[in-house]
Amino acid sequence: MKTLVVYYSLEGHTRAIAGFIAKETGADLLELKPVKQIPTRGIWKFFHGGAQAILKKTPELLPFDIDARDYDLIFVGTPVWAGLIASPMRTFLTRQKVRGKRIALFCTCMAGPGKSLQIMKELLEGNYVLGEMEFRSTPDEMENWERKAMEWVRSICGGL
Fold it and tell me: Which of 34, 48, 59, 105 is the most buried (most CB within 10 A)?
């Protein structure tokens, strides 16, 4: 089964989870990168990222040469910004017309997934969502991310 992990990561948390998933599944990785990155330091990252998410912005992405329609199973991951999906992920999900695929959704967050997983499901209507998982960015939980990711991936892939 041809597997893809598509994700956006500002600080590396979502990238880490994507790496664990790819390691377990042998998946290809597609990291979404906006043409104009938001600040990664200080309070400005929260202001810019949260505002983009609330306003449903779709920033331009750097070109990539992977077509998600070529894959059987797609893991989709985003950080949670203001309880919503990150704007680069919104760009990808609104512009890529992926239909009839097996999908697994994940997010990284501090306080909880908010509406992020539901939004991704809505934007991926016409696909088969096999599961979803949140990974909290707290020190206690982060040390168990790899184990949690592996168990989740096995539960997703074991049913196929």
Answer: 105
Strands 3-7 and 73-81: parallel
Report in angstroms the alpha-carbon separations of 81 from 71, 75, 85, 154.
27, 19, 6, 28
**Which pair of tokens denotes residue 125?**
């209507």
Q: Give the SS3 label for residue 8.
A: coil
Which element (helix H / strand E) includes 147? helix 145-158
Cβ atoms 79, 136 nearer than 8 A: no
pTM, entire model: 0.93
Residue whose tokens read 């790496």: 19
3-state secondary structure of 115: coil
pLDDT of 109-129, one tens digit each?
A: 988 899 999 999 999 999 999
Tokens representing 123? 């934007």
